[in-house]
Specification:
By secondary structure, the chain is α+β, with helices and mostly antiparallel strands. Helix content is about 25%, strand content about 20%. The protein contains five helices and four strands. The chain has a four-stranded mixed beta sheet with strand order 2-1-3-4, covered by helices on one side. Strand 3 and strand 4 form a beta hairpin.
Length: about 160
Amino acid sequence: MAPTTTPGSRPLPPVRVRLTTPALDEDARRGRFGRADPAPGHVGLAAPATGDWAGRTLEEVAAEDPQGVRSWLTDPRYAPPGGGESVAALIARTGAHLAALAPGPHDALVAQAVVRAAVVWALELPAAAFWRLDVRPGTVTVLSGRAGRWNLQVGSPVGDCPPR
């Protein structure tokens, strides 16, 4: 993260990131893997790449590749075939983006997996915690901090999120 003071020794404002998850679309309702959707204005917060699994349901993939699904759910380093991104890589990419943000407020519309990755990275949780975090659609998760120390506000409905 950036230094915590300005050249005149005034403290910098913290970074405050509002991560908003969209409402479920029809593909998400059917349990289909996403297609690495971008996060407008925040390239490093794009949805994870799911490789050959993109657009298919978990049930379809599990019927064809049960060991792949099992590995994906238990080994943070496992990446779906065909250019998919591992959970560990998603956490690292998300963390690098958050660490590089300038002080002040930031807003991003992101996939639920990106919120999980951001929380795991910010709170320095083990990668295995990724699958233990439930992120609801249509909610806002707020991370704020500076100098490597982050605080978390989770799961506020979009309309109830406090102003910046």
